[in-house]
DNA sequence: GATGAATGAGGGTTCATTCAT
DNA sequence: GATGAATGAACCCTCATTCAT
């Protein structure tokens, strides 16, 4: 359980992340992971201690933290509050799309809450990020640009829910808009642009006075 | 495998739905289900053929179909297109909140795509409901009240994503707004109202010209 | 884990007792037991719950209890205290020789104390039997035939130690006395006679005044 | 596998002896031993070749050999045969109590006969010591002080059986006689005295004519 | 029609050992 | 000479399912 950043450890993390995102935690066996990673089964216990702790390691290494981004935005005097919020939304879209597999796992694990350590980690992440966003919103409210009454967790539901749900509907969405001819990169770029624009409209409506 | 609507069968369906929603399909054993339902383990194979077919039965009996609702709305001349859309959104909120457990299962199963029969069922439901909603939107567009260019699947992502994500954040949301003192019914009623209002703002912004 | 006295259960108990006595608890795998019993591996969990509980079941079914024998002896007016004690010694020799395999297990398990349930069972059995024997000894002391100061646990050590140690030296003993030509039954009969006579000499010396 | 008497080797031997005596050979893993000895796991194979050979090394270093003691006794003209025998019994008590852990291992290993090399070693030790004791007994017989017919292996069973069995009942014995207040050394001294006296009574009865 | 007994496959984990350094 | 990394085998147990009744 010792070596922290060996190549095999990273390989196991990547393979596990992929398989968990495809078949779920309980639907993936350690033998599956080890075989696909081309590594001996016993190495999972060796590196991580157990299958559960492997999952925890994935969470530790992949979880999204927007605190730094928010701090940068708050300091940036060249942006008005709505623009700051837009940048933050882009950050969410970007980061979640960058870590599709992990966020698919996250989606399921929030439902199938079993591992108390992961429950704890999720709670912390959620609170932390919510609080960061609150800082941006309060700024807009102070400047009189945002509505006084904003249900921030509800707003976050829409933000995360929209992006996450897109993750499980990627193929459907691609087919609907006949985007199969695009390369993966092109599609991804297009999708991020669409998501970003879509969410900005939503947030502007939610945050602004005029409704 | 014969009896179609015996009491035991319904009991198994309910128990399985609950356990699948709490622990996932792979995390739930047929023993768990049978024990909690107070029924012999062999009965699951007996009534449904297999654990997988039990899952399929749950999907068959719980899937949301909005076609009828849409047909009624389209015929109702007393409502303008936006009102029709609002009614439809309320229908979604109402139905998903009514079937929380099933929609938690649905959330995971869309990620953990394993059973081809369920994949097929999901695809059909999605297309069917999308097409129904499209009918309402086209009506609004014809009357010049809705924007010409609406990304309907993206809009649906936000609708379903927002409601679904609320399902996995219920406790967090309740705690954040200090609603623990409410009874379950009161909280549910409050939540549906908030969800409904929130989503209407979003849809109005998305469908209207003014952005 | 339900059926209490099925044939397969008994077969598993017998096979496990034999293998545990030959290779020890940790040296015997559930596969070994199941294979030799001609029964599926899963049946051990099915009948007993676990390998440990199988061991506990063996202890429950095979443990020696001399209370009844002692009660009969105490009531029997035709025997003097030393004769009563002799009968009790014969009972020990007889019962332990009858259950050689179990007592070999017992021998090891007293050393390798791991399972708390078995530790508890052993403590109870030891106390119970010690107390029963004490009753016989007190009778002899009351009648002035036995020494006042007898270290009963020490005496029991010699009784159990002598018989138990013979169990692990059977082959050596047989070879030393050139008894290989005897049938198993003949050898066993001879051995029990020798053990019995030997132990009686010892106990007479320990209990009588004249030392 | 080279260094014969390095410090680490001795540390491994001691730790292994302790763990084998507490949890048995099969119940102790090489990891356990290495960890508790503060030494790398691979060292066990390195120093001893294998776990089995580590056990053999323990037997080689700890086995009791009374030949020398017997030779000294035979030469000592100041002692009569019974006194010589008493001295020999004290030697047994002393040596076995000195090496409690090893003799607990021995107790189990005689039952769980798996390693042929150890079986062989045990047979040799047993024969050697038996033959040594025989020398003392024959002397007593020649002088007409001991019975002609003595079942020496049976007598050894009682000797070894009594001491060994005390090893597994130490705590019980201490509690029974309320000796918990004694220090370890005091208790050990007391116990050896009691054992010694007890066994001498027994041997006198077995060896003398008067029964 | 309904069920307890039984099964073979596979689950996660730990084992003693060996290899490359 | 000494060690951390890695291995394949085996561990006990639980799985979904089927069979005999």
Structural notes for this entry:
The structure is a homotetramer of 211-residue chains. With 211 residues, the first copy, chain A, is an all-alpha fold. Chain A has two domains: 2-60, Arc Repressor Mutant, subunit A (Orthogonal Bundle); 63-207, Orthogonal Bundle (Tetracycline Repressor, domain 2), CATH 1.10.357. In chain A, 75% of the residues lie in helices and 0% in strands. Chain A is built from ten helices and no strands. In chain A, helix 6 (81-98) packs across helix 9. Chain A is globular and about 60 Å long. In chain A, 31% of the residues are buried. Chains in contact: A-B, C-D. The first copy, chain A, binds a DNA duplex (21 and 21 nucleotides) through residues 2-3, 6, 8, 29-31, 39-46, 50-51.
Q: Counting H and I runs of at least 4 residues, what is the number of helices of chain A?
A: 10
CATH architecture of the largest domain in chain A: Orthogonal Bundle
Helix share, percent of chain A: over 70%
Number of domains of chain A: 2
Shape of chain A: globular
* Portion in strands of chain A: under 5%
> Distance between termini of chain A?
56 Å
Main sheet overview of chain A: none
Major interchain interface with per-chain residue totals: C-D, 47 and 47 residues
| H/E element order of chain A | HHHHHHHHHH
Spans where pLDDT lies below 50 across 5 or more residues of chain A: none
> How many whole angstroms does the radius of gyration of chain A measure?
19 Å
State the oligomer. homotetramer
Q: Which secondary-structure class do the elements of chain A indicate?
A: mainly alpha
Report the CATH C-level class of the largest domain in chain A: Mainly Alpha
Total strands of chain A: the figure is 0
Mean pLDDT of chain A, to the nearest integer, reads 92
Q: What's the CATH topology label of the largest domain in chain A?
A: Tetracycline Repressor, domain 2
């Amino acid at each position: 359980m010792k070596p922290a950043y060996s190549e095999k450890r990273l390989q196991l993390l990547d393979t596990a992340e992929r398989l968990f995102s495809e078949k779920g935690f309980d639907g993936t066996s350690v033998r599956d992971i080890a075989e696909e990673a081309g590594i001996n089964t016993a190495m999972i216990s060796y590196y991580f201690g157990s299958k559960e702790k492997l999952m925890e390691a994935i969470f530790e290494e992949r979880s999204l933290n927007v605190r730094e981004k928010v701090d940068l935005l708050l300091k940036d005097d060249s942006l008005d509050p709505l623009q700051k919020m837009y940048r933050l939304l882009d950050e969410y879209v970007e980061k979640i799309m960058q870590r599709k597999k992990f966020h698919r796992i996250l989606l399921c694990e929030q439902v199938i809450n079993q591992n108390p350590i992961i429950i704890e980690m999720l709670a912390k992440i959620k609170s932390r990020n919510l609080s960061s966003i609150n800082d941006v919103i309060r700024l807009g409210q102070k400047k009189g640009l945002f509505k006084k009454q904003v249900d921030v967790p509800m707003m976050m539901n829409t933000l995360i829910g929209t992006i996450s749900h897109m993750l499980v509907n990627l193929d459907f969405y691609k087919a609907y808009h006949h985007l199969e001819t695009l390369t993966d990169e092109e599609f991804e770029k297009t999708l991020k642009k669409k998501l970003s624009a879509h969410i900005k409209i939503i947030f502007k409506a939610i945050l602004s006075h005029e409704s």
